[in-house]
Each structure stands twice: as structure tokens, then as C-alpha cells.
Write a structure and sequence with these properties.
The chain has 196 residues and is mainly alpha-helical. It has one domain: Hypothetical protein, domain 2 (Endonuclease III, domain 1), CATH 1.10.340. Helices cover 48% and strands 3% of the residues. The longest helix is centred in the middle third of the chain and has 17 residues.
Length: 196
């Protein structure tokens, strides 16, 4: 059974990207495209952590609020956040106010700066790119984690990161093009240039 829906523009998208205009725009322009810049990658890691247990649509709707609250996800600035910043964030109704995730973001900013001594966050994360990518015909065939996402999770935790479990890291790998889980037949399949 195919999980693709043909939109009013004639293009095939998965059901999660076919209804909501913001999710459709995200799917058509961002999801699965390579991110190879530290600040943008740190933002994605942070947002994936906040998404844990919630829907991506919630995070996407709040993304501009997150950017404003977290200094546009500049790890150098976030690494210097104080208790005053934590209080400010816990009182910011525009973001997901979950203390452990806020603390994890600050902690992960510090870990990102430390990783610069080992080549940086981008090269570190991309070093877990698998030899091949899934070729799902339906949403049910898309894995929720992989040996590489398990390994990435363990490696990031060893470097001091938190809220980077294997399922969250697989979602990150999908979002930034390390794997291509666009359904076969989707108009976006292969669009990243990473996988042909």
C-alpha cells in the first residue's frame, strides 16, 4: 500500500506532508536536504530534542520563537546562558517549556564547542552516513532507527551530548539528508544529491 497522496499541484507527497501548508512547505524545501554548517546543524539537533514525544508540526510552528529564545541557535552564545536565561526560557510560552530539554540545549552547545577540537560537529555527525539508504514504498517501511543512528547516539553521548537517543538521531539523519527516507515515487526522492 502506498502512503503517497497526489496534491492539487500533481506532486506526490507522504500523508504527513500533504495536508498542513507549513508541513508541505517544509517537506518540499527543507526536509532531507543536506545541512553542513555548524549552527544550522546545532539548531536541528536542538529542535529534534525538543520534538521528542511531540509532533514535528508543533515544533515547526514554534521554530521562529525557538530561534528568538535561543539566540538563533548560536552555540557560542547558548553555552554562556545563565540561570537567568533558564528562568526566561521556562517563562517563554512561545517555546516548549521543558526544563530538561532546555538544560540539554545549553549543555549540547558546550559540547558542540568542545567538538571543534576533533574536527567539529558537522564532520562528526556526517561520519555516521551509512553505505546505503532505505528505499521505502510505504510509511510503514521507514525504520525509526538504524545501526548508524544507534552508533551516532552513543558517540554524541560520549562527547557529552544529551537528548540524542537513537530514534531522535535517526530523525535528524532523515531531516539533514544523511539518509533518504522519502518514499519511492515521491517528487522529493533523491532531491538531496546525497543519494542517487
Amino acid at each position: 500500500m502506498s502512503s503517497l497522496i497526489i496534491g492539487d499541484d500533481g506532486l506526490k507527497r507522504p500523508s504527513w506532508a500533504a495536508q498542513d501548508p507549513q508541513m508541505r512547505e517544509y517537506y518540499d524545501t527543507e526536509w532531507g536536504m543536506p545541512i553542513r554548517e555548524e549552527q544550522a546543524l546545532f539548531e536541528r539537533i536542538s529542535l529534534e530534542a525538543f520534538q521528542s514525544g511531540l509532533s514535528w508540526a508543533i515544533i515547526l510552528r514554534k521554530r521562529e520563537n525557538f530561534r528568538a529564545a535561543f539566540a538563533n541557535f548560536d552555540p557560542e552564545l547558548i553555552a554562556r546562558f545563565t540561570d537567568t536565561d533558564i528562568d526566561r526560557l521556562m517563562n517563554d510560552a512561545g517555546i516548549v517549556r521543558y526544563n530538561r530539554k532546555i538544560l540539554a540545549t545549553i549543555n549540547n552547545a558546550k559540547a558542540t564547542l568542545q567538538l571543534r577540537e576533533k574536527g567539529g560537529l558537522v564532520d562528526f555527525v556526517w561520519s555516521f552516513k551509512p553505505i546505503e539508504t532505505p528505499q521505502p514504498q510505504s510509511l510503514e517501511e521507514i525504520p525509526t532507527q538504524s545501526p548508524e543512528s544507534v552508533a551516532l547516539s552513543k558517540a554524541l553521548k560520549k562527547e557529552g551530548f544529551s537528548f540524542v537517543g537513537p530514534t531522535t538521531m535517526f530523525a535528524l539523519m532523515e531531516a539533514i539528508g544523511i539518509v533518504d527516507t522519502h518514499l519511492m515515487g515521491s517528487h522529493r526522492r533523491g532531491s538531496s544529491g546525497v543519494w542517487v
